[in-house]
C-alpha cells in the first residue's frame, strides 16, 4: 500500500499523458538503499544519476537503452520506456558506481493503455560499502607498517654514516697519522738543535746542552 501511494505521487505530473499514449510503459525507480534491506524507506533519497537501463524483448535482444542522467523525471529517480507494444520485456539495470541491494534484471509483461509498471531498483554507494567493510585492525596494521618502514630507513641511514666514518678514521690512521707523527718528530729535533748551539763574542757557534 505504501509503495502504491508513493508511485501515485511520483507519477502525478505525468499521469495525464499515460492513457493519451499508444502502447505500454515500463519504468525503473532508483533509490539509495541506505539500510540495505531491498525496500525503499521514507528517509532514503532517490538516485538521480549514474544509472543506465537496457530494454530487451522476448528474444533477449536489446531494443532500447536509457540513462537516468538524461531522463526528464530523473530528479525523482525515474527512467523508463514508453509506447511499448504489448509483450514481454526485460529491464537490465547497470550502475558501475553503485552496489545493488535489489535484483538488477526485471521481466515484465506489458499491455497497451494501462497504468505504467514501475520497478524498484535499490543500491548503495560503492564508497560507503568499502568504508563499512574496512576494519580498525587493518588501519592499525597499515599505520604500523609505515612506521616500521620509516624506522628501517632511519636505521639504514645511521649505519651508512657510521660505516663511512669508520672508513675515514681507518684511512687517517694508515695514511695521515704516521706522517703527522714524523712531522712532529722533525719539529722537535729542529727545536732541540736550535737550543743546542750559541754564538760567542767572537762570532763562533758553539754547541751547548739543550
Description:
The protein is an alpha+beta fold and 210 residues long. It folds into 2 domains: 2-132, Immunoglobulins (Immunoglobulin-like), CATH 2.60.40; 136-207. 37% of the residues lie in helices and 28% in strands. It contains 3 helices and 10 strands; from the N terminus they run αββββββββααββ. The strands form 3 sheets. It has a 4-stranded mixed sheet. It is rod-shaped.
* Tally of domains: 2
How much helicity do the residues have? 25-40%
For the largest beta-sheet, the strand count, sense and barrel status come to:
4 strands, mixed
Given helix and strand content, the structural type is alpha+beta
Q: What characteristic shape results from the CA principal axes? A: rod-shaped
Counting DSSP E segments of at least 2 residues, the number of strands comes to 10
Q: Give the CATH architecture of the largest domain.
A: Sandwich
Low-pLDDT windows of residues = 14-20
- First-last Cα distance: 124 Å
According to CATH, what is the topology of the largest domain?
A: Immunoglobulin-like
Strand order of the largest sheet: 4-1-8-6
- Strand percentage lies at 25-35%
Tell me the name of the CATH homologous superfamily of the largest domain: Immunoglobulins
CATH class of the largest domain: Mainly Beta
Output the number of helix runs: 3
Order of helices and strands: HEEEEEEEEHHEE
Rg over CA atoms: 45 Å
Amino acid at each position: 500500500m505504501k509503495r502504491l501511494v508513493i508511485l501515485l505521487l511520483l507519477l502525478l505530473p505525468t499521469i495525464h499523458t499515460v492513457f493519451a499514449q499508444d502502447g505500454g510503459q515500463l519504468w525503473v525507480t532508483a533509490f539509495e538503499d541506505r539500510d540495505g534491506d531491498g525496500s525503499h524507506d521514507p528517509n532514503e533519497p532517490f538516485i538521480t544519476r549514474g544509472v543506465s537501463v537496457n530494454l530487451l524483448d522476448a528474444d533477449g535482444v536489446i531494443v532500447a537503452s536509457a540513462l537516468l542522467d538524461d531522463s526528464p523525471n530523473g530528479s525523482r529517480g525515474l527512467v523508463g520506456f514508453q509506447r511499448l507494444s504489448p509483450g514481454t520485456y526485460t529491464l537490465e539495470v547497470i550502475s558501475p558506481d553503485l552496489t545493488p541491494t535489489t535484483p538488477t534484471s526485471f521481466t515484465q509483461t506489458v499491455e497497451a493503455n494501462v497504468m505504467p509498471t514501475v520497478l524498484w531498483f535499490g543500491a548503495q554507494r560503492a564508497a560507503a560499502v568499502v568504508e563499512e567493510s574496512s576494519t580498525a585492525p587493518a588501519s592499525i596494521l597499515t599505520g604500523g607498517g609505515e612506521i616500521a618502514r620509516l624506522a628501517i630507513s632511519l636505521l639504514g641511514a645511521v649505519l651508512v654514516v657510521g660505516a663511512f666514518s669508520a672508513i675515514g678514521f681507518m684511512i687517517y690512521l694508515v695514511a695521515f697519522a704516521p706522517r703527522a707523527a714524523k712531522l712532529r718528530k722533525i719539529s722537535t729535533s729542529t727545536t732541540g738543535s736550535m737550543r743546542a748551539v750559541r754564538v760567542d763574542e767572537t762570532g763562533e757557534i758553539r754547541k751547548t746542552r739543550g
